[in-house]
Amino acid sequence: MSSFAWLHYSLRTEEAYVYWVKNFIHFHNLKHPRDMGQAEIEAFLTYLATQRKVSVSTHRQALSALLFLYQKVLGIEVPWMDELARSVPKKRIPVVLTRAEVQAVLGKLEGLHKLLASLLYGCGMRLMEGLRLWVKDVDFDRKVIIVRDGKGGKDRVVMLPQSLLPALKDQFAQSYTLWAQDRALQLPGVEMPHALDAKYPKAGQTWSWHWVFAQATMSTDPRSKIVRRHHAYDQTFQRAFKQAVQAASIVKPATPHTLRHSFATHLLQAGTDIRTVQELLGHSDVSTTMIYTHVLKVSAGGTASPLDTLNGLLP
């Protein structure tokens, strides 16, 4: 399990799978997985659910890791594992900020963090989709952004807010300075997706493949151990966003992903067709997008409380 590159798994998925496989083996006193079967796997999953009380998503991740271990690594056909009852995620209403709250949070951010947060809200992108933007995927002429390799490995096109053009062009200039500096020092190029380095060895050194949100300092690639320029760190932005939410006196448990939820809700609120919102978000099924209509039904006042009628507040 030393490399997942051929499967196009993210580094975080690799690390999570390795973590759960190690936990599974240690849970059974270092017994080899080949010598274990359904009883041992079910015992481990039951332990996670009942004693460690992990979340539904964590439980599903552990099961996926064991499926990967047996099917992909050990090459063992285990059809019974597909029949294991997977925990069904609970449908939760997403946290959504009002337009005034979004404006308040953005007002507490500065520089790169403000631009990135504005893009997440203005385009409906996930945090890592924004951080991993390449120069070539921002089209100033057509005012669109191509989001590459989103959830499920899908590409999609989103709008580029005109109000962000000046700030984004300034960000391009800053990124170009770092790129030119790297080329002058003959440093390695950025990491290419899906092992494209082998097919296009020099592509990572070109301006078109450079990060829009490039990190100011160099770092060591966790896979190849090559010292190169990475995109800006997600944790740094998450801390800045949390501080901005607190500074704006917002009590909702808002995270960077809340900006994506707010983007979808505000578009629907403005009368945008739900199929269009589905495409902008990159949802495979419109039922996933429908969750935002539940927020609208109550927040828009479409259904009045009987108490208000009782007290004569409504005709």
Number of helices: 15
**Beta fraction of the residues?**
5-15%
End-to-end separation: 67 Å
Query: Helix/strand-derived class?
Result: mainly alpha
Main beta sheet:
3 strands, antiparallel
Strand tally: 5
Q: Unreliable stretches, pLDDT < 50, 5 or more residues?
A: none
* Largest sheet strand order: 1-2-3
List SSEs in N-to-C order.
Answer: HHHHHHHEEEHHEEHHHHHH
C-alpha geometry? globular
Multimer state: single chain
Can you give the mean pLDDT? Answer: 87
Tell me the Rg in angstroms.
23 Å
Helix content: 40-55%
Characteristic terms for this protein:
315 residues, mainly alpha, three-stranded antiparallel sheet, two-stranded antiparallel sheet, 15 helices
In short:
By secondary structure, the chain is mostly helical.
Please explain how this structure is put together.
By secondary structure, the protein is mainly α. 50% of the residues lie in helices and 7% in strands. Among the domains are: 5-82, DNA polymerase, domain 1 (Orthogonal Bundle); 124-234, no CATH class. The strands form two sheets. A three-stranded antiparallel sheet has the order 1-2-3. Strands 4-5 form a two-stranded antiparallel sheet. Helix 1 (11-27) packs across helix 3, helix 2 (38-50) packs antiparallel against helix 3 (56-73) and helix 5 (99-107) crosses helix 10. The radius of gyration is 23 Å and the shape is globular. It starts with 10 loop residues before the first helix and ends in a 5-residue tail after the last helix. The mean pLDDT is 87.
